Amino acid sequence: MYKASCLCKGVELEIHGPIESIIHCHCSLCRKSSGTAYATNGFIATDSMKIIKGEALIKSYAFKPGRLRHFCSNCASPLFSSNADLPEKLRLRLGLLDSEIEERPMSHNFITSKANWDDLDADLPRYDTFEPSRLKNCLK
Ligand SMILES: [Zn+2]
Ligand SMILES: [Zn+2]
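# zinc ion complex -> structure
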């Protein structure tokens, strides 16, 4: 069982089953709804997700008929998406997870839609916290 929550912790979810087909999606819809370079999403069975807290906070936006993106109306965290043509599955936003998971992403998708500053192969340095210049200035 995996636990997940939004930024404000108003919505708490449990996933009682596997997370399948995890991908890093660089499509323009995921970029806009996440506000960043890509979204990491995976399929879960609809009946494997329990809303532990905050059901009333969950609002949705239909970007196409039957295609809903659900989010926390308090903190605006993207939560999951649903598709009326595939009601037995939900697409979970993996950044919500508070649990360590067994599953791993399998690919970067829609890379032809990626932002021109999003360099998949960048050999960028990695830091445990902020980059050194930001630590020095104590900015967050
Ligand atoms: Zn929230
Ligand atoms: Zn996408």
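# post-check
The chain has a mean pLDDT of 93.
Residues 28-34 form the longest helix (7 residues).
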